[in-house]
Amino acid sequence: MKRLTSLLIVVVVLAGFMAACQPETVEVTRVVEVEKEVEVEREVEVTKIVEVEKEVQVTVEVEKIESTPIPEGVMQINFWNVLGGWRTPILEGLVTDFNLQHPGIAVVNEFKGSYRDLIQAAIQSTAAGEPPHISQIFEAGTQLALDTEIWMPAEDAVAQCGLEVDWDKYLDAPLNYYTIEGKHYSFPWNTSSPIMYYNKDILDAAGLEMPKDPTFEDIEVIGRALVDGGYVEYAFAGLNHSWFYENWIATQGGNLVDQNNSQDGRVTEVLWDSEEAKRTFTWYLQLYKDGLLIDSGIEAWGEVNRIFLSQQAAMMMYSTSAVLKVESDARENGFEANTAYIPAPADVERQGVVIGGASLYVAKGLPQDELCAATEFMLWISATPQTIRFHQSAGYFPSTKQAVDVLEAEGWFSDHPDQQTAIDQLTETKVGPATQGAKFGALLEVRTIIEKQWEQMMADVDAGMSVEDAVEKNLAAAKEASDVAIADYNATIGE
Length: 495
Known about the structure:
Number of helices: 20
Largest sheet: 6 strands, mixed
Low-confidence stretches: 15-66
Radius of gyration: 23 Å
Helix content: 40-55%
CATH superfamily of the largest domain: Periplasmic binding protein-like II
């Protein structure tokens, strides 16, 4: 209980740091959401792939699924998650279908706001003796979740319930991320990765073509041609989010932290002074100094999207989970949006991406019947038929390799080439410490630190400092502050 209380304090502190950094949603002029009715073909096959969705271009209204009282004798399983907004009916539909197929179980979908809110609430609820059965924990909270000691490894839950799962069926990138010291701690579910979007119409007008895997140098050349030619005000809309900086470092093979990027032990320092970090920020800051980059602000998801959709900038970094949404919004605003891999330096071997999104954790200490019911649901919702449905509607990557094969066979990726680009970037990622992601408890605070230092880099350049000096100065400051944050966190949990 001592560790639980200490970590609650840590989470509250981090929530304070990040309160102004939550992804936001904005309305953009002439951006219209269109819901699509789907036909569901049901087949019974040995592979158990029983549902394949096909789009029909019909505009319909999505009815809100009202919760119904749980019948007496039916076991309630609480599923805490953060999928709100337009994704809520999608998740409600999945939960309803599971409950219909499992009449003795009633999974209750509970929206908990942000990922940080969910972790904090779960710690408080567990301390009060009422843990949520299932929690959707984002990738940046992995080490924090482990340090709370309130969730059990998914692998142990499966074994304890006498269930079977072929872990190799999951896509390699998320499976490797959530495998800690050789043990599978959670079920991969709503996985995403960063990707670059670009305005194809603007590039076509300038007679330019975006490579599938652009380099830092490609972005500079294309950006300069677009701006100098008067085709667009800015080449690149920048979202000040550490996730993108971490990915640019990782795709060069660089580690974010020590201990072999956290794979070999408890993290003690952040490597903001690495060559990969310096190369990343030098390139990015030069874009800003040259007038090619417009910065949207710290974690200002809505603002960078608005800049791109208003065609103020021709390129932006964003999430793969938004591919279908960005494509649709771009069409409503009169242009075609396409995707490309995240940029990387020309003189390094591209390693791939570090995932984002979240996975599903089961609470420790549950009664056996509740544990097994919760585990059954997590297996079901991450299985191939459900993950195909989730991908095609909610936008996240399908969780299993078989789902990718089915989607390819059905022509989904041929019909949605930007989704093909996204899945290719993920599946081509090389497994290694850099791309497995840095897992440490102070990650959220460290992200805030580097995002503030990026703002200072821009201010320093505006004041006349050279790009090289601004990068050197601010990365040193970021490292010093980050290392203190890590030491404080480790001390809090008694490490």
